[in-house]
Amino acid sequence: MRKIHCINKISKCGIDLFTDRYEMTDSIEEAQGVLVRSSSMHDVELPDGLLAIARAGAGVNNIPLERCAQEGIVVFNTPGANANGVKELVLAGLFLASRDVVGGINWCREIKDDPDIAKTVEKGKKDFAGCEVKGKKLGVIGLGAIGAEVANAASALGMEVYGYDPYISVNAAWGLNRDVKHITSADAIYEECDYISVHVPLMDATREMINEETIGKMKDGVVVLNFARDLLVCDDAMAAALESGRVAGYVTDFPNPKSVNMKGCIAIPHLGASTEESEDNCARMAVKEIMDYLENGTIKNSVNFPDCDMGVCRGASRVAVFHQNIPNMIGQITGILAAEGVNISDMTNKSRDKFAYTLLDLEAKVEEITLQKLDAIKGVCRVRVVK
Questions:
Q1: Per-residue pLDDT tens for 347-360?
Q2: Which partner for 87 in 149, 230, 239, 342 could form a disulfide, CB atoms 3.0-4.6 Å apart?
């Protein structure tokens, strides 16, 4: 019986996918698989028996990826499962920033007791007037699942859309509306666009990518939208730009003590993926990933190990070896199996940065002493018997 622990509440439609070979547990100490949403796991002690963590969402900065890789713990995420929910909120942010809807609503509440409110609003509504987005230029930085949907939706609204992503996949490129202009430099977006929407993961290279220098390249009166990660924007630089009028509006889905006090900032309480549909989609995808891995050793949508799929094992045994991506690992692994008289019927080896994953189908069950020899190879992180 495989045991699964949920750190956050996970949609029931995902949990219900687990078969009777799985059991939910309140203790992470006895879990082989963990499901998590936004809770931080950086200070969580990871038990020796933990094999996989599935994040019901796209971002994984709440999970210690390097530590997990070193311990042979596969970390999954669910790219694209919440894309539509986030896209719709980005569009809402675009509309809220182009016309002062929030300010107008608040003003109506302030004058709600005015007996002549209808006449009052007709006189005062000019203070909240804005512009239409049709015909304006939108720059989308990052053309992954969410960024591509935002670009396509904005193009359908009649906006002139510029897309920048040096790492765009072939599938993502094919999915883009042909009217989206794929450009090769973010500077063109900073210099040309009326609206800029950021959709990149948080890493050292992207941390505070919207800063004093990049804001200085932007058009006066630009609107910046951040529905990706809080730390992609330098709060101090944004506050100064809003105060000076260089940036006309900032819409963020990540309120913090600085952003909620910025003039011209619309702070939304992290609602991007908080729809029933997104939570259901993420839960289903996370559960399927973790089940396929625990049952077959299949890795799909991992953020710390390479994708690998050998289907269902038809042989006597399947063994997975997690190891550093260094020379002669395959030779040592196959050499030990050969010395023990174990024949390999199928094998695949995939690598990703510093780590690699070797999956082997064998014609006989592996003795414990053989597993110990594999585990003793310098550079091996974990040896797991899948079947």
A1: 999 999 999 999 99
A2: 149
